[in-house]
Specification:
This protein is mainly alpha-helical. The chain contains three helices and no strands. It is elongated, with a radius of gyration of 15 Å.
Amino acid sequence: MVYVKQITEDAARSTHADVQKLRDAGWKEDQIAEAVYITALFAFFNRVADAFGVPSQDYLSKGRTTP
């Protein structure tokens, strides 16, 4: 999703027009908010894990989503 990539890479550049594109595509306000919250939480958790040196579990390449 283009919007999530934009939020991940440079959230400060997000504009009202970017959000309006989601609305025009049928997204509701709570869906847009949830996409932003989830994206931000993943970024937060990844930065915390990186800061503490938590090694990647790489579950997806192993065909798993849990240990």
